[in-house]
Amino acid sequence: MRGLDFTRLIIRTLIVAFYFTIGGTASAIDAIDRMTAERLQAVHQTILKLAAERRNVPREGALHEYRANLHVHSAFSHDSRGKIEEIVAAARAAGTSVLMFTEHPASHYDVFVDGHKGTRDEVLLIPGAETNGMLVYPRQSIKEVESARPQDLSDFVRGRDGLTFLSHLEERMDWDIHGITGVEIYNTHADFKNEKRLISSMKNPLWLMKTADLIRQYPQEVFSALNDYPADYLQRWDVLCAQAPHTGVSANDSHQNIGLTVRLAEEGKVKIEDGLGEEVLTLEATVFAAIKPIPDDAKPGTVLFEMRLDPYEFSLRHVGTHLLLTELSQPAVWQALNNGRAFVAFDWIADATGFDFAAYASGQRYEMGSSPKIAADLKLKGQAPLSSHWKLIHNGKLLQESDGFNFESVVKEPGNYRIELWLNIVGEDRIWILSNPIYVSE
Ligand SMILES: [Zn+2]
Fold first, then answer.
1. How far apart are CA 219 and CA 415, in angstroms?
2. For residue 134, how far is its CA from the centre of ligand 1 (angstroms)?
3. Secondary structure of the chain: what % helix, strand, coil (to 5)?
4. 414 in a domain, yes or no?
5. What pLDDT is attached to residue 14?
6. Burial letters 199-237, b for 16+ CB under 10 A, else e
7. Residue 210, SS3 per DSSP
8. How far is the CA of 239 from the centre of ligand 1 (A)?
């Protein structure tokens, strides 16, 4: 038997070695690899360490920074049950000051007229829609054009002081819509869609039950285990920015609809409901009891087990769009998004507040999104609240790399310059911040 065990061990070692050889690139790590108890614990410790090391860096210039979440669904949308009070509470917990809703249009409500607006608990609410492949933030009802061609819908909204962003780029890499405000440069749902192993695991209620303990301990780290560098999105964005400025924003695609509730039912059964409260499965109570004992005093209707993978707090903290505003108001948000004065940050790793990227020439400062003319003394400068790995991207190509809290580069050529900031988390390089470009003109 010992000989046989040893042979098995050798075979297993060879298989593992082979797996690492063929999958030896960075992309081989997926959400399932990141969801072991050891790795989640290590990531959690690193996040605490980064929070302790973080420096508050004062911002130069006249603008103030506010965190926004775009692409958020509430109970108006058919695929969410989110109540405004719980979404606002989650936003506050995640450090968000601007919630930009994107409901799926339906006949029983008007996205703009009925949508969430105004200020609630100091959080600015902006109504909008996810429709025709775009995030649409109109300033009036769009009922009459909801099913128009994307270009016509965008023209209608843009022509009436609204904003439009291409959404879910992975489904429309070939779209070339004129006059849009910008594009999603990261979408959480798109990031989730290529997690093949995670998706197949999630169809298994037994896997969900086992994972529930890890979620209770490390809810943010489990949620953000899906986080990869959005290479294809950024490639497309660079191409679009070469044609005209496009403000890059992040899309949370928050729904709070992935989860599982197990209730005791009549006649020795248990019922399993999905994250929207829809019944998906009925089991013999004895089958369930083999996994988790049922308390003696449980009655029909008693919740025996509950878990949620995507509560608003964790999906909103995961990624945010930081806006540089004159004040916290809808017109100021419009100014920032129309002019590219924004950056995207995976704040689940560390609060990116204070990050800065700007151009300087002749004593003048140019914010992200602006178009300074090439000049002998034109410099790009950056600062970050943590020592990080800086990558300067020029017209879609890596131009310069360095490490530290600060960054500086002399501009020699016109073109589009943007910054990527990376942090090493438990041996893995993770994208932390994506700036909007500075468009240096001839
Ligand atoms: Zn959506």
1. 41
2. 10
3. 30, 35, 35
4. no
5. 41
6. eebbeebeebbebbebbeebbbbbbbbbbbbbeebbebb
7. helix
8. 24
pLDDT by residue (tens digit) across 172-201? 999 999 999 999 999 999 999 999 999 999
Rounded to the nearest angstrom, the distance between the alpha carbon of 237 and the centre of ligand 1 is 19
Furthest CA-CA distance within the chain = 82
Q: Ligand 1 centroid vs 73 CA: distance in angstroms?
A: 7
| Distance from the alpha carbon of residue 325 to the mean position of ligand 1, in angstroms | 26
- 171 lies in some domain: yes
Identify whether residues 184 and 263 lie together within a single domain: no
The residues whose Cβ lies within 5 A of ligand 1, an ion, are: 130, 253
Looking at the structure, tell me whether residues 181 and 221 fall in a common domain.
yes
Ligand 1: distance of its center to the CA of 113 in Å? 19
Distance 169 CA to ligand 1 centre (A): 12
153, HSE (Cβ side, Cα atoms, 13 Å): 23
CA 250 to centroid of ligand 1, rounded, Å: 12
**What is the pLDDT, as a whole number, of residue 12?**
47
Please, what are the averages of pLDDT over each run of 10 residues along the chain (442 residues)? 44 42 56 96 98 94 96 91 95 98 94 96 97 97 93 97 97 95 97 93 80 93 96 97 98 88 91 87 88 90 90 96 98 98 98 98 96 98 98 98 98 98 97 98 96
CA of 428 from ligand 1 middle (Å) equals: 29
Domain housing 61? 48-256+313-351
DSSP label of 387: E
pLDDT of residue 27: 56
| Residue 429 near residue 26, CB atoms below 8 Å | yes
Residues 85 and 154 in one domain: yes
Residue 411 Cα, ligand 1 centroid: separation in angstroms? 39
Residues 152 and 266 in one domain: no
Cα separation of 388 and 101, whole Å? 32
Determine the pLDDT at residue 22. 39
Q: Cα–Cα distance between 282 and 328 in angstroms, integer?
A: 49
- Separation of 199 CA from ligand 1 center, angstroms? 18
Rounded to the nearest whole angstrom, what is the distance from the C-alpha of residue 136 to the centroid of ligand 1? Answer: 11
